[in-house]
């Protein structure tokens, strides 16, 4: 029978849904414990309940990567569930400490939920090998990979890890990571938190936006950019003259829903991810810039350079890198769409999610439909 859910989250090769009874069900690849069902190989075609989780209010997924001893690199995912009691449980990849449970290491993952070492959580976000939580007192704690101190503090080296060696053997490297959630100094009054992998933002109770971390391409929205891999991280800085109700971060850009239901984006634009109708690096923006033609937006999901919005009438639009979003390319021969484009098959939706590969939406009747390059359209059912 079809699952009945109120929210969905997607990984590169899997997805999870928050069911109506406040439990979680997952399906897809499980080679790194992504499904939370204890299995560590193969894939599950039907959804299965994650054991031991009840009272869940939200689920989030972070997509990352890991390089193996032969130098090859693979996609891995981490999933977290926020519980009604203000705690969180996570499962999947933990190689850079992104489970927030004090552990890290090459090949480390958990195939069943483990507790995150932070309490009184109000909001939760995952990105590429990182996680952040806004707590009920308005503070923010982050964990996971922390190169250059982009999380807002410095961390000790973790590893060793493998990295591609070019034409030679794999290199053995270490990188800074935080395995236990660490409070970010200079952030207060946070109501919602978003993570992008190397930059983070919060929306305060007053709807003001504060961002910190890597500012390449101006993705912090503070009016300046910092190009180059050695640019120092920016401490928490308020985005001037800007308020929002929700924010979502990609790898090189940021987008936010405003109180009037419009959307503004800023940062890199090499795949048209700012929605401005053009596509090139020179059109990057260092301040929030309105996305033309978008209104009545109630939901926003961003992954890497892919953007999706959910509108109040239950329809959806996407732009940026949409190579795995549209069954037929809106612009033949070009995976990048620089303006919001209707996803005509999405109707009566109440939630939507993308990983850039797997895409799902929740119907008004709480059933779930997902699609990707291998399965153009299918209903998710319990196995």
Brief description of this entry?
The protein is mostly beta strands.
SSE blueprint:
Blueprint: E1 5-10, E2 14-19, E3 24-29, E4 43-49, E5 56-67, E6 73-83, E7 88-93, E8 109-115, E9 121-126, E10 130-135, E11 140-145, E12 157-163, E13 171-183, E14 190-195, E15 199-204, E16 208-213, E17 234-243, E18 246-249, E19 253-257, E20 263-267, E21 285-290, E22 297-303, E23 306-311, E24 316-321, E25 336-342, E26 349-354, E27 359-363, E28 368-371, E29 378-379
Antiparallel strand pairs: 1-2, 2-3, 3-4, 5-6, 6-7, 7-8, 9-10, 10-11, 11-13, 12-13, 14-15, 15-16, 16-17, 18-19, 19-20, 20-21, 22-23, 23-24, 24-25, 26-27, 27-28, 28-29
Task: Explain what you see.
- The protein has 383 residues and is an all-beta fold.
- A 5-stranded antiparallel beta sheet has the order 9-10-11-13-12, with no helix packed on it. It has a 4-stranded antiparallel beta sheet with strand order 1-2-3-4, with no helix packed on it.
- The radius of gyration is 19 Å and the shape is globular.
- It has 2 domains: 1-36 and 44-50 and 353-383, no CATH class; 37-43 and 51-352, Regulator of chromosome condensation 1/beta-lactamase-inhibitor protein II (Methylamine Dehydrogenase, Chain H), CATH 2.130.10.
- The chain has strands at 5-10, 14-19, 24-29, 43-49, 56-67, 73-83, 88-93, 109-115, 121-126, 130-135, 140-145, 157-163, 171-183, 190-195, 199-204, 208-213, 234-243, 246-249, 253-257, 263-267, 285-290, 297-303, 306-311, 316-321, 336-342, 349-354, 359-363, 368-371, 378-379.
- The model has no long low-confidence stretch (mean pLDDT 94).
- A hairpin with a 4-residue loop joins strand 10 and strand 11.
